[in-house]
Design goal:
The complex is a heterotrimer. Chain A is α+β, with helices and mostly antiparallel strands. Chain A has three domains: about 45 residues; about 110 residues, Uridine Diphospho-n-acetylenolpyruvylglucosamine Reductase, domain 3; about 100 residues, 2-Layer Sandwich (Enolase-like, domain 1), CATH 3.30.390.50. Chain A is about 30% helix and about 25% strand. Chain A is built from eleven helices and 14 strands. Helices cover about 35% and strands about 15% of the residues of chain B. Chain B has two domains: about 70 residues, Roll (Ubiquitin-like (UB roll)), CATH 3.10.20.30; about 70 residues, Orthogonal Bundle (DNA polymerase, domain 1), CATH 1.10.150.120. Chain B is globular. Chain C is α+β, with helices and mostly antiparallel strands. In chain C, strands 3-5-1-12-9-10-11 form a seven-stranded mixed sheet, with helices on both faces. Classes of the chains: A alpha+beta, B alpha+beta, C alpha+beta. Chains in contact: A-B, A-C, B-C. Chains B and C meet through helix 2, helix 3, helix 4 and helix 5 of B and helix 1 and helix 16 of C.
Chain lengths: ~280, ~160, ~775
């Protein structure tokens, strides 16, 4: 960031979108816990979103839960009317002073392996809303992460919110790590439309940290849809060939072990009430 | 270079900063040495300050972000003549050893007690989870916060 | 209601400065014209330097000096015991971060820019990363002629015949990991030449006297011309015992060449990579015992991974050597402790100083023996532990306080709730609970091998208003030394603590008092104070007696008042000190402590190894998640043999700190190494416990059985508060899982692998194939 010459702090969305479209080599600043490490010498303008109040809302409207891009992890963590999976994912982020500033938008757009929130959001079929001066477009998170998020967003766009429908469906999230504030070794989220006996409808299984970006485990979902709870005993075969992100902290077998253990636990937690 | 101004403990500071300077860099350069540099990655918490009422790590915040804001360091809370109840509690409970993590932890405690005047033990642990300490083993620090809550409650002001 | 302590309940003297943010650590000083120092270190652990090009670095604006080995203004050597270590490497690099270039510039940015422009060409050479291979014929020789730096032994009785007669043998090979001190304040120093040719060095350190000697040697100055001031020190734990010599000499070199003050502060990741660490050890421990539980012989081989330079590794190994048997009377002993070079991290002093690693082994072995014989772990320790009837330590000494060990066992068993948790450990679903103990004996103060350093001074000046200045040679690094010195001085004199002002160590104010290590601050500093007071007090008693017209023998000074026993004649301390000054009498004295010479045979490990000993024990209760290997600590019990508590709040803080640091070492703190490089340097991935990891309960009990050689009977607590924690954790996990534990740390993956190994599932790590 050494060549930055301009610092702008828009006070509403249209100013923000104007700046995003117009300013030369601009970068968006949300909470501001990672820009300090950037070595990008091409950035000339920092656009600070902290005064754009429209981005700070948590809203229930049109049958959706809408999380503004500037909502912080601390805010999420303390809202008892939000899905427990989202609250747990927010609480998993680092430590209090970092949760106080890290935002929904930052968690979605940063694209590092340790982002916890998007794992939970993706399991709940969250949709990212990107805005620009020419309008808005919505993209399911799964598609956002088909590439690095900085590549799926267009240079003139800003992530303004994340929307969830059917957000109170059974769901659970867990971060496996050595300490509470550690980066995830594996993070897992699970959701389902419903459970009946030992069967499950529309299971969604998402992992993070063991992959560079959050990933849905379609094979696991298929097996669960077919076989219900008994699929949990057959996960080893599914994972035997699973290629994980090399992590100098742990071995690949241990990563796989955590995924299997996590899926089993979260299936049951989601079915039995949401707390892991 | 960008010119910014912000308040530290109520006093206005005008500085020119580059895009890769942190708030920690600027505070220390301007004499606020109570804000410590203990690591290079935003993990130790010794650099904690309160900005516009939010407790955060100053080593992670770009200096420019502080423009127009109010920063609080531990000097604002109290001094030897008139210590803040949190400072009193930390001393009485014996919760300070080498002291390097102490100023930022006191601010983290202050921030907690502003939002939650009667925190539970778990709330206290969570509020201090970003302040590493190698000397005390945390036990007395947690009890110091509970004691501070008591002292503040008695005083009738936060 | 205070249960322990001879202190008067004042806050520690440095508390106010620290809570108001006013305490000044070395990085908080900015003298005029100060330059910032920086170091360029080797990116590889083993190699030959082909070239170092600093021409571009020198041209960076704001840079005042760029030094390679050829540019040093002093001798290029700085090994503290062995002459095996350069200030700057010229030919052969031996560790990642090995110093190549020193830089001084006006700003941190300029220095960082100059560092980036230094061009280093190193031809990699095969390195040695496995200490078990250090003595193989084809192993690369890291330093000198051989990878064996030194061997220590203990030989007592005849272990071969004991082995022959044994009814049961327990053998284990323990791989015990090192540890990073992770003091919150990184290493740092500020050095500057004074106008009169002397030098001043501000440093965060546990031994300003070592720094003074190193800087004086480098600058070729008389010792008297180097003034070292210990700044408020943000944690040490042994990591600031010898290591600070290195940044100090580097800063002095830069300050000499530039003529300006130079401040050199280590960045955290560099600090973690290059500074001293707890030594990883491989310990091969064999117990020979009878079926009744009595151990008749112990046979040990200990491999100490010293890293590329010897540093103080031989001193650490010396303690590990004699401590490796444990608090047990064993008639036949053979220990071989080998200190070995590798290209791994630089081994050095760390709280416990070799004892924690060997304790992990000796305590695990005792529990395995107990298990093999169907005995309770306390029972097997009662059978073998030292006691009044069986007082012999591994050194052949009869311990005058051996009776304390059985008492410690009783207290530990009771306070930990052992019987409740041991025989029916809870287990539900994936969780298994367990409880384990670790007990140790610790030789307080320096080993016989370190005798030449073992003296301590206290300079006391009584002022005319009755206030007192005390300058001691032991350092405050957070552990509460200043408060303890103040308490002891006040108590010995008989006045209020708030009249006494104790200063941080300044080498111009007090004679060389050795390092603040080996839990010796209370003992060596305290004894020096008692010596000083024993000389001062009579002088004031004499004046007071004269003022009152009584004989000095009839007076006592207590609570700031001189009085006869019937209270009929009395005068206050300040009245006497005022009169003392009127009479122009000498109000100052330097007190001295010198431990008695001790005989010790280094070839057999027999003799008086230490001045005296302290016992300690921990019980740890754990809950293991058998699916992930994660170990949660439910509670910890600590029992300490301390002689006398000086300050209750102070000692509690040490016990808490030792427990948490011990749990960190045992469960979290690991080194992810790749050819000598620490991949996880930094707090992001070298994890130490946070507030969230503090166990719900830490119970403690202090046995106060006064030590005759300790001031007020006190023994010291700095290290015993740590040493047995790791061993207790290992035994707790052993109990929880029923699986033998031979590795530390017990990270989740390590525990998971232990469980799989014992279940016969031998999945090798794919990334190790």
């Amino acid at each position: 960031m050494k060549n930055v010459e301009k610092f702008i702090r828009p006070t509403n969305i249209s100013e923000l979108l104007e700046a995003r479209a117009k300013e030369e080599n601009n970068i968006l600043l949300a909470g501001g816990t990672s820009l300090i490490f950037s070595k990008d010498a091409s950035v000339r303008t920092i656009i600070d979103m902290s005064e754009v109040n429209e981005l700070k809302n948590i809203e229930f409207s049109d049958g959706k839960l809408k999380l503004g891009a500037m909502v912080t992890m601390t805010q999420l963590r303390h809202r008892s009317d939000l899905p427990v999976a989202i609250r747990n994912a927010a609480l998993s982020v680092a430590s209090t002073p970092i949760r106080n500033v890290v935002t929904v938008g930052g968690e979605v757009m940063r694209g590092v392996y340790w982002n916890d929130l998007p794992v939970a959001l993706m399991a709940l079929d969250a949709v990212a809303v990107f805005a620009s001066t020419t309008g808005e477009r919505a993209m399911p998170l799964e598609e956002v992460f088909s590439l690095h998020p900085t590549k799926t967003i267009r240079p003139d766009e800003v992530l303004t919110r994340v929307e969830l429908t059917d957000y109170m469906r059974p769901a659970a999230f867990h971060k496996f790590s050595k300490t509470a504030t550690d980066y995830a070794i594996a993070s897992i989220a699970f959701s389902a439309r419903s459970f009946e006996g030992s069967t499950v409808r529309e299971p969604k299984v998402v992992v993070g940290a063991v992959t560079p970006l959050p990933r849905r485990l379609n094979d696991v979902e298929r097996l669960l849809s077919e076989k219900g709870e008994s699929a949990l005993e057959e996960l080893e075969t599914l994972f035997s060939g699973f290629k994980t992100r090399p992590d100098f902290r742990v071995s690949a077998e241990y990563q796989r072990n955590l995924m299997i253990v996590g899926i089993r636990r979260l299936f049951r937690a989601a079915r039995d009430g949401g707390e892991e | 270079m960008m010119d910014i101004s912000f308040k530290v403990n109520g006093k206005e500071l005008h500085v020119s900063v580059t895009g890769n300077e942190s708030l920690l860099d600027v505070l220390r350069k301007n004499g606020f040495t109570s804000v410590k540099r203990g690591c290079s990655e935003g993990e130790c918490g010794a650099c904690g300050v309160i900005v516009d009422g939010v407790y955060l790590k100053s080593c992670l915040m770009l200096a420019v972000q502080a423009h127009g804001r109010e920063v609080m360091t531990v000097e604002a809370l109290g001094d030897v003549q008139e210590p803040h109840p949190i400072q009193v509690a930390v001393v009485e409970e014996g919760a300070v050893q080498c002291g390097f993590c102490t100023p930022s932890r006191i601010l983290a405690s202050y921030s907690l007690l502003q939002n939650s005047p009667n925190p539970s033990d778990d709330e206290v642990k969570e509020a201090l989870d970003g302040n590493l300490c190698r000397c005390t083993g945390y036990v007395k620090q947690l009890s110091a916060v509970k004691k501070a809550a008591e002292l503040i409650g008695k005083e009738g002001e936060a | 209601m205070k249960k322990y302590g001879i202190d008067q309940g004042l806050p520690r003297p440095d508390a106010h400065a620290k809570v108001t943010g006013k305490a000044r650590y070395v990085n908080d000083y900015h003298p005029p014209k100060m330059l910032i120092g920086g170091i360029v270190g080797s990116p590889v652990a083993s190699g030959r330097i082909k070239s170092i090009d600093v021409s571009e670095a020198r041209r960076v604006p704001g840079i005042h000096a760029v030094l390679t080995a050829d540019d040093l203004p002093g001798p290029n050597s700085m090994g503290i015991i062995y002459d095996d270590q350069p200030v700057l490497v010229k030919d052969r690099v031996r560790m990642v971060g090995d110093r190549l270039v020193l830089i001084a510039g006006e700003t941190r940015e300029a220095v960082e820019e100059a560092k980036r422009r230094v061009k280093v060409d190193i031809e990699p050479l095969p390195g040695l990363y496995d200490v078990t291979r250090a003595l193989d014929p084809d192993a690369p020789v890291v330093n000198g002629d051989s990878n064996l730096i030194r061997e220590f032994k203990v030989i007592h009785g005849d272990v071969e015949s004991a082995a022959h007669d044994a009814e049961i043998t327990i053998s284990g090979e323990y791989h015990i990991g090192g540890q990073e001190h992770a003091y919150l304040e990184p290493q740092g120093t500020l050095a500057f030449p004074e106008a009169d040719g002397s030098w001043t060095v501000y440093v965060t350190a546990q031994c300003p006297f070592y720094v003074r000697a190193a800087v004086a040697r480098f600058l070729k100055l008389p010792i008297s011309m180097v003034h070292v001031v210990q700044t408020v020190t943000g944690g040490g734990f042994g990591g600031k015992e010898d290591y600070p010599n290195e940044p100090a000499v580097c800063a002095a070199a830069l300050a000499k060449v530039t003529g300006r003050p130079v401040k050199l502060i280590y960045a955290r990741d560099y600090d973690m990579q290059v500074t001293t660490k707890r030594h990883p050890m491989v310990i091969r421990h064999t117990l020979h015992a009878r079926r009744d539980g009595k151990v008749v012989g112990v046979d040990l081989e200990i491999l100490v991974d010293a890293g590329a330079y010897a540093g103080l590794s031989t001193v650490v190994a010396e303690r590990a050597n004699i401590s490796s048997v444990g608090p047990y009377e064993i008639p036949n002993i053979r220990v071989s402790t080998k200190v070995l070079y590798t290209n791994n991290l630089f081994g050095g002093p760390y709280r416990g100083f070799g004892a924690p690693q060997v304790a992990a082994a000796h305590e695990s072995q005792m529990d395995r023996l107990a298990s093999a014989l169907g005995m309770d772990p306390f029972e097997v320790r009662r059978i073998n532990g030292v006691s009044r009837e069986h007082p012999m330590f591994a050194s052949g000494e009869n311990l005058p306080q051996a009776h304390i060990y059985p008492e410690l066992l009783d207290r530990l068993e009771e306070l930990s709730g052992w019987k409740q948790y041991r025989n029916q450990p809870a287990s539900s679903g994936r969780y298994r609970e367990g409880i384990g103990i670790g007990t140790i004996i610790y030789g307080v103060n320096l080993h016989s091998g370190g005798q030449r350093l073992d003296r301590s001074a206290a300079y006391i000046i009584v002022q005319q208003d009755g206030s007192v200045n005390v300058a001691v040679g032991v350092t405050e690094m957070g552990q509460g030394a200043l408060a303890a010195m103040r308490t002891m001085a006040a108590r010995a004199l008989g006045i209020s603590e708030d009249l006494i002002y104790v200063t941080q160590v300044d080498t111009n104010q007090v004679p060389d008092s050795g390092p603040t290590v080996a839990s010796r601050a209370t003992v060596s500093g305290g004894r020096a104070i008692l010596d000083a007071v024993s000389k001062l007090r009579p002088r004031f008693l004499e004046v007071a007696a004269d003022m009152l017209g009584v004989s000095p023998g009839a007076l006592d000074l207590r609570d700031g008042v001189f009085s006869t026993s019937d209270g009929s004649a009395l005068v206050s301390w300040p009245e006497v000190t005022a009169e003392y000054y009127v009479r122009r009498l000498n109000p100052a004295v330097v007190g001295w402590f010198r431990s008695p010479d001790r005989e010790y045979d280094h070839d057999t490990g027999q003799g008086r190894a230490y001045m005296f000993y302290a016992f300690a024990g921990h019980a740890v209760r754990v809950r293991v998640d058998t699916e992930t290997g994660k170990v949660d600590v439910l509670d910890v019990t600590a029992v300490h043999d301390v002689g006398r508590v000086i300050s209750e709040v102070g000692i509690e803080g040490q016990v808490h700190g030792g427990v948490i640091q011990g749990l960190g070492w045992a469960l979290l703190e690991e080194f992810r190494m790749k050819e000598g490089r620490m991949l996880n340097a930094g707090f992001t991935d070298y994890l130490i416990p946070t507030a969230m990891d503090a166990p719900a309960d830490i119970k403690m009990y202090f046995i106060e059985d006064p030590e005759p050689q300790g001031p007020f009977g006190a023994k010291g607590i700095g290290e015993p508060s740590f040493i047995s924690v790791g061993a207790a954790v290992m035994n707790a996990v052993y109990h929880a899982l029923g699986t033998e534990v031979d590795i530390l740390p017990l990270t989740p993956e390590n525990v998971w692998r232990l469980m799989n190994r014992s279940a016969g599932n031998n999945a090798a790590r794919e990334d190790e194939k």
